[in-house]
Amino acid sequence: MVADSSDATGRVVGGRLARVRGPGASFDTVVARGNTSDVYAVGADAVVKVPRPGVPEHWTDIEAELASTAHELGLPTPMVLDVIEVGGRRSIVFERVEGPSMAEELVANPRRCDEMARAMAAIQADLHRATAPESMPTVADRVAEKIAAADELAADERASAADTLAGLAGGTSICHGDVHPGNILVGADGLMVIDWFDAAAGPPVADVVRSSLLLRLSGEPPAVPTYLGDVPAATLERFHATYLQEMLPVLLDDAGATLAWEVVRSVARLSEKLDAGAADLIAIWRSRCDVTRASGTPLADVIRAAR
């Protein structure tokens, strides 16, 4: 990929992007806003994802490489067209997919909740059927880094979480690491998965557990996570329940591993510091529940109900 030059206002000169919109292109139409970046239209056929100030520069290159790998494997994701500079920040140009996010579709058409939940489960299962290349990081390595940064816990608890992680089996499936309705586009040609920064090689259960964490209400009082926009709480709870029913074969294959992934993923999630649900995550970690208990973590309850 070729990095083009730009001035401080985000005007791009030359390179592949010029063939999309012409020399001197500028970006002023916001298509979407995320936790760490904003997405702008580039003509009718492309968008540029611009990280906010303070986001490490190398994150752009990591995401571009992972997204390109996913596309080359034939997975449903927009093509990376270029990596450029916009306002002095390295940014990714993607082909544009017309259509709402699945989160927006849930707001507009809540009656499609079960249908959308099943569709998300199906597309995630498709990702898991793909084999990750050796160049892709592992889920275990990514989770270990986040556990080390979870300073809400004492050092001995972080060490215990790392030990639990080390005892879990790895895998070679493509694990997106951030599958939720805000990261799925409902396009004319089908669903497309975006935001590949957290992609890694690992066991499907690790990815399903991560999605479950992302679909939960958090905070006090419980509220919908900000990255899911205006999705009503009742809709999200139903979506989550339907999604878990679709993923039961994965969750039940090794219930002990599922619950272990839930506790270590909860610790790792603490390091992201994005939501008000830290107390919920800490409670999951400290429960250390097993399948013999009447209740415990959300996934322990799902497993017991299914047996």
Radius of gyration from CA coordinates: 20 Å
Query: Which fold name corresponds to the CATH topology of the largest domain?
Result: Aminoglycoside 3'-phosphotransferase, Chain: A, domain 2
Low-pLDDT runs = 1-25
The mean pLDDT is 88
The helix-strand sequence is: EEHEEEHEEHHHHEEEEHHHHHH
How much of the sequence is in beta strands?
Answer: 15-25%
CATH class label of the largest domain: Alpha Beta
How many distinct folded domains?
2
Structural class: alpha+beta
Terminal-residue CA separation? 51 Å
Strand arrangement within the widest β-sheet reads: 3-4-5-7-6
Sheet with the most strands, sense and barrel status: 5 strands, antiparallel
CATH architecture of the largest domain: Alpha-Beta Complex
- Give the strand tally: 11
Structure description:
This protein is an alpha+beta fold and 307 residues long. It folds into 2 domains: 5-95, Phosphorylase Kinase, domain 1, CATH 3.30.200; 102-306, Alpha-Beta Complex (Aminoglycoside 3'-phosphotransferase, Chain: A, domain 2). The chain contains 12 helices and 11 strands. The strands form 4 sheets. The protein has a 5-stranded antiparallel β-sheet. The longest helix has 16 residues, at 113-128. The N and C termini lie far apart (51 Å). Mean pLDDT is 88; it is low at 1-25.
Quick summary:
This protein has 307 residues and is of the alpha+beta class.
Walk me through the topology:
Elements: E1 5-6, E2 12-13, H1 15-21, E3 30-33, E4 37-42, E5 46-51, H2 58-72, E6 80-86, E7 89-95, H3 102-108, H4 113-128, H5 139-148, H6 155-166, E8 173-175, E9 184-187, E10 190-193, E11 200-202, H7 204-214, H8 233-246, H9 248-253, H10 255-270, H11 278-287, H12 298-306
Antiparallel strand pairs: 1-2, 3-4, 4-5, 5-7, 6-7, 8-11, 9-10
Helix pairs in contact: 4-8, 5-6, 5-10, 6-10, 7-10, 10-11
